[in-house]
Design goal:
Blueprint lengths: L2 H6 L16 H20 L17
């Protein structure tokens, strides 16, 4: 059993991306990581629409 095959038994879902260019990797994984952080916040009971300690900045001309 290869080292990569062990991961399959530890997860419910696995996304495999083969032969990606290094420049494309951040673009490809941005949406799944955003969804992961969204669902973790929901599980923790955090209000995802009004994050705590987020300061608003307004520029007055």
């Amino acid at each position: 059993m290869k080292k990569d095959d062990k991961v399959i038994f530890l997860t419910d879902m696995l996304i495999v991306a083969h032969n990606l260019e290094c420049i494309a990797t951040p673009i490809i994984f941005t949406i799944p990581l955003q969804l992961l952080s969204y669902h973790v916040a929901l599980i923790k009971g955090t209000d995802v629409d009004q994050p705590r300690n987020l300061a608003k900045s307004v520029t007055v001309e």
